[in-house]
Design goal:
Length: about 120
Amino acid sequence: VQLQASGGGLVQAGGSLRLSCAASGRAFSNYVMGWFRQAPGKEREFVASISRSGGNSYYSDPVKGRFTIRRDNAKNTVYLQMDSLKPEDTAVYYCAAVLNGAPQWIVAATMDYWGKGTQVTVSS
């Protein structure tokens, strides 16, 4: 599976961005998908994940209520809608895929495939 993330940019605090991650290769719907982020000097952290069907989604506490993950299996794409952005959301955002595993338990170390990151910068 090859993943290509896009949609990052510079936005003011309180604004919104939508990230997209397009997948190519093997059956997209077989994979649990996740978004992670890494800020300068910090470890990569979990942001959100979504089940294979798209029926269940999970979020880290810092983004819960502000970010929404969804997927379109017909388009082999997963999205991250980010609203009410804060300066502390500034990071490089990565999409990732894992074949085996439950979406509520995914961690960066066990993901099978990663896309190149997309920079999100939130100014105050």
